[in-house]
Each structure stands twice: as structure tokens, then as C-alpha cells.
């Protein structure tokens, strides 16, 4: 049972993850692989609006996507973009990344191999992972400007689209935990996390929304990390 307090805390995490960037023209759009085909749709929309001349879809499979995207997240994203009328020659596929860090490093390597000059990236993620993706990209690809983007939608709308409310809460808790622990491990830059957001995260973790936490470091910020 998800209580009213749980939903209020989840909304705090959701709002914090939104970077509030206004999309603008960039060298390339990178759609980060996941279970959410909305990432592909939003990347296509940005391409159609003239924001990017080139698209990279990146992602292998995960425990969440191996059933619904057996050929890999990036390949299914590419199929979606082609269905929506995007020319095949403006889509690159990076099919090996299994986490956000690899999404960035392997996409960067692919673009460098193709001799494509990149000064700015429209980084397209799930709505609840904008800040995490941004912090990771800033750490792993210095010298490039990142503009965050995701499908414009509310938390209730996203829950309706996924049809699994508890999973959405678990994923938001997991994303916030990574923002707290990964900077010390060198995986992302450190961003200020307001006290009310940390409090919401702690309450949700203590109430058992823990399936997407990093194993072995505890469910509370700093537990097993310091």
C-alpha cells in the first residue's frame, strides 16, 4: 500500500530530478536506453524540431528490458524512430551500454570514431533521471555542454504509463541514492541535494521502497559508504 505521505515524498524526488532546461539546438541528441520508449519518442520530437541533426541511441538490455526489448534497448529505440519517419542515416546505435556511465562513454567513443565534432549534447532520459544523467555526463565527458530533456509529463501520468506504481517509487528512490553516493566513487559530479529531498528519500527507503538501491551500500545515504 502506498500512503499519501509516500506519494508526497515521491513527488519531491520527481520534482528534484527535473533539471528545467529549455531545449536548444545541439550537436547531437543522445537517447539513453531504458524500458521507456518515450525516450525515443522525445528524441525524435527534438530532431523534428530542428534541435539536433544526428541521433545516438544507446543501451543493451537490463533485467527490466530483456523481456520486452530482447534485441537491446538502442535497437528498439532505432526501430521506433524509423517507424516515426526519421531517416536511417541520421541514427547511430550504441548497443553495448548497461548503465548510465557506459551510455555516456560508449556514445562518446562512437561519435569520436565517426569523426563527429561534439560541443553540445541534448541528453534525453526518463523524466525521473534527468539530474542523474546530467551529473554523470558532466563527470565523464568534460568540455561538452549538456542540455537535459525528457518527455514532459506529471508523476501521475508517468505512473499510468508504466502501470506499476511501486516500481516507479522504487526507481525514484534508486536514482536519488545514486546522486548521493556516486560522486564519492567518481561516477558523477556532486550536486546539491536539498534537505527535504534527502528526508523524502530516507522515509521512502525506510518504508521498503528499496528494490532499485545499489546493493551492499545500505538503504540510507552514506550507509556503508563513508
From TrEMBL:
Record domain DUF218: where: 39-153
Protein origin, superkingdom: Bacteria
Record GO cellular component, one term: plasma membrane
Pfam families attached to this UniProt entry: DUF218
Protein name as catalogued: YdcF family protein
Amino acid at each position: 500500500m502506498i500512503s499519501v505521505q509516500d506519494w508526497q515524498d515521491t513527488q519531491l524526488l520527481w520534482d528534484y530530478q527535473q533539471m528545467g532546461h529549455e531545449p536548444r539546438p545541439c550537436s547531437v541528441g543522445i537517447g539513453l536506453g531504458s524500458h521507456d520508449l518515450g525516450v525515443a519518442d522525445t528524441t525524435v520530437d527534438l530532431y523534428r524540431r530542428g534541435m539536433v541533426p544526428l541521433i545516438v541511441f544507446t543501451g543493451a538490455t537490463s533485467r527490466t528490458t530483456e523481456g520486452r526489448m530482447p534485441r537491446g534497448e538502442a535497437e528498439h529505440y532505432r526501430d521506433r524512430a524509423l517507424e516515426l519517419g526519421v531517416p536511417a542515416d541520421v541514427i547511430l546505435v550504441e548497443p553495448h551500454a548497461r548503465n548510465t556511465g557506459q551510455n555516456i562513454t560508449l556514445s562518446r567513443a562512437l561519435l569520436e570514431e565517426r569523426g563527429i565534432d561534439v560541443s553540445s549534447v541534448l541528453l534525453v532520459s526518463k523524466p525521473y533521471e534527468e539530474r542523474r544523467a546530467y551529473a554523470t555526463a558532466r563527470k565523464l565527458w568534460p568540455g561538452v555542454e549538456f542540455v537535459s530533456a525528457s518527455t514532459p509529463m506529471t508523476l501521475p501520468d508517468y505512473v499510468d504509463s508504466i502501470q506499476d506504481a511501486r516500481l516507479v517509487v522504487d526507481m525514484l528512490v534508486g536514482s536519488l541514492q545514486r546522486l548521493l553516493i556516486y560522486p564519492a566513487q567518481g561516477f558523477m559530479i556532486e550536486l546539491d541535494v536539498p534537505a527535504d529531498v534527502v528526508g523524502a528519500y530516507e522515509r521512502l527507503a525506510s518504508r521498503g521502497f528499496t528494490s532499485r538501491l545499489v546493493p551492499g551500500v545500505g538503504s540510507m545515504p552514506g550507509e556503508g559508504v563513508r
